[in-house]
TrEMBL record:
It comes from Steinernema hermaphroditum. It is found in: Cytoplasm, Cytoskeleton; Membrane. Belongs to the syntrophin family. Residues 334-447 form the PH domain. Its main location: cytoplasm. This is PDZ domain-containing protein. The lineage of its organism: Eukaryota, Metazoa, Ecdysozoa, Nematoda, Chromadorea. Keywords: Cytoplasm, Cytoskeleton, Membrane, Repeat. InterPro entries: PDZ, PDZ_sf, PH-like_dom_sf, PH_domain, PHsplit_syntrophin, Syntrophin, Syntrophin_4th. Residues 147-230 form the PDZ domain. GO terms for molecular function: structural molecule activity. GO terms for cellular component: cytoskeleton; dystrophin-associated glycoprotein complex. SUPFAM superfamilies: PDZ domain-like, PH domain-like.
């Protein structure tokens, strides 16, 4: 195997494999079995203990404990669908239930206001069309007439702006309400209210100018007869103009229908930006992460089914996009999996979920703020986590089983050893299938990265001698003098009893009698070396087939 030193540009996140690595060549995935329970190893034969389980890990500040697991196929809980479009569907197949909801009505949040559309989903896009309702309407449209008394302050007006009129073929509509002015203080007037009369004077057939004059001469106490009619009379072009999306992902048909492309879109069951007590909303975020559309169903069950359909379409399109990305990149690097995750972070002292686009290659886990579209963007991830120094240490299914329901948080945690210490990420996914896929791919790619790397070395000081600590997948651990290139000691992985570090620069490895414990000064953070050691051990176990 040809080994060469990798020269990488400096970044905020040092790459542990900068120490020593090999370029990837052909790789092969092995089938995995069912997950096995975790174990803790304090002393004794580390490799034998590892054989009881599979890959994972957690490292304490001093004594390293190998918490090992393998995830394979997490079976998602069966979806329980009660109704579709108001009709019982208990006797229907799940596929038929989903098809029934591929065309129904949804509300979209635009500039702080909910607008209702006829929504239709196909394999590539979600299409929105205006709801055509007459004056009768239903509980989503028009309302009963209301009379609201407004008392103006001295020297002030009503505090509203209006639009429409006979000359515009529209009723007189309230288009704006000014905060803390007379109309706003009533709490009974809303943008979208049609003014039918002022102090008994009808404005049903009034022009815009006639309505303005009627409002100005109404006096200090004004009785307004209004009806809420926003969804019926608001300009279709005006509404569609508020739907913003990436240019290559949105198109309009026949001037009255807007289609939103789902390719590389981020689909989440709950809003990442607003609270949803009723659990009726879901979000679609554009590939550039610049635009977000929040949708609301009539109830949580309908929102669940809409989400399942849209998410499934986006997932299928993601498979196609992955092939296109690898074609563009020329398989260098080869992207094994990519998609949107939500990462937990702290903003202004509050825990929030922030969307990140993740890509998994055979060597690295890469993170971007948006979907990279060209080679130069792919070459500049925001964060790079080398797989040989990264472990999946926790999943929702292992520590806190998810109760059935797609709205529950499904997550996994990764830890990476870097020159600045351990870096952890908590990621949220939307379905159990996503959780299983991400964990499986990360674990498998880590095995492949270790197999292709085969050997890493790190400079160190041992008993006042400048040395190189070398990990070889097939031979174990050895220490070589830098000047003489003589092997000072060498042990197979099987004899390791325990490892530990001080979190600063010292690493201890206990090989048991007669060698005992060896202490090395790694001249920097020991965490990359510790994590790589654990990855090599797990890969060794995987190759031996010693997993449950």
């Amino acid at each position: 195997m040809h080994i060469k030193e990798i020269q990488r540009p400096r970044s905020a996140e040092p790459d542990a494999r900068r120490l020593f690595a090999v370029w990837p060549s052909s790789v092969r995935q092995r089938p995995r079995q069912r997950p096995s329970p975790s174990i803790d190893v304090h002393d004794g034969d580390l490799l034998r203990a590892l054989c009881q389980s599979a890959f994972g890990g957690a490292s304490s500040a001093c004594t390293h404990k190998t918490d090992v697991f393998v995830t394979s196929k997490f079976a998602p809980p069966p979806s329980i669908v009660l109704t579709a479009e108001g009709r019982p569907i208990a006797a229907l197949q799940e596929a038929n239930a989903m098809t029934a909801l591929r065309s129904s009505q949804l509300e979209v949040l635009l500039e702080g206001e909910w607008h209702r559309f006829n929504a239709t989903l196909d394999e590539t896009a979600l299409t929105l069309a205006p709801v055509d309702e007459g004056p009768g309407g239903d509980d989503w449209g028009t309302t009963e007439k209301r009379t609201v008394r407004v008392v103006k302050n001295e020297g002030s007006g009503l505090g509203i702006s209006i639009k429409g009129g006979r000359d515009n073929n529209m009723p007189i509509l309230i288009s704006k309400i000014f905060k803390n002015m007379a109309a706003d203080l009533t709490g009974q007037l809303f943008v979208g209210d049609a003014i039918l009369a002022v102090n008994g004077e009808s404005l049903v057939d009034a022009s815009h100018d006639e309505a303005v004059r009627a409002l100005k001469k109404a006096g200090r106490i004004v009785d307004l007869q209004v009806r809420y009619m926003r969804d019926i009379y608001m300009s279709k072009d005006s509404i569609f103009g508020r739907i913003q999306w990436d240019e290559d992902g949105i198109y309009q048909k026949d001037g009255a229908v807007r289609s939103i492309g789902l390719k590389l879109a981020c689909v989440t069951r709950t809003s990442l930006e607003m609270e949803d007590i009723e659990n009726r909303t879901f979000e679609i975020r554009s590939p550039s992460a610049r635009y977000v559309l929040t949708f609301r169903g009539m109830n949580s069950v309908e929102a669940d089914i809409w989400f399942e359909n849209i998410h499934a379409c986006a997932d299928t399109l993601l498979t196609q996009a992955l092939a296109q990305v690898n074609l563009m990149l020329g398989q260098n690097p080869q992207v094994r999996r990519m998609g949107w995750l939500a990462e937990q972070s702290v903003q202004h002292g509050v825990l929030v979920w922030k969307p990140v686009f993740a890509a998994l290659t055979m060597n690295d886990l890469l993170f971007y703020d948006a979907v990279p579209l060209i080679k130069s963007e792919w070459a500049n991830p925001k964060i790079t986590r080398p797989l040989i120094a990264t472990r999946v240490v926790q999943t929702t299914a292992r520590t806190c089983p998810v109760i059935s329901g797609l709205s529950d948080i499904i997550s996994f945690t990764t830890r990476t050893g870097t020159q600045q210490g351990i870096r952890s990420h908590l990621f949220r996914v939307e379905t159990h299938r996503e959780l299983a896929a991400w964990v499986k791919f990360i674990v498998h790619c880590t095995y492949e990265a270790c197999t292709e790397t085969a050997q890493i070395s790190a400079p160190c000081i041992w008993q006042n001698q400048q040395c190189e600590l070398i990990f070889q997948l097939d031979k174990g651990i050895s220490l070589v003098g830098q000047q003489t290139r003589q092997i000072l000691w060498q042990y197979p992985f099987e004899v390791i009893r325990a490892t530990g570090d001080d979190g600063q620069q010292f690493l201890w490895i206990d090989f048991g009698p007669p060698a005992g414990e060896q202490e090395m000064d790694l001249l920097g953070s020991p965490k990359p070396v510790v994590f790589i050691l654990h990855s090599f051990l797990a890969t060794k176990v995987y190759h031996l087939g010693l997993y449950a």
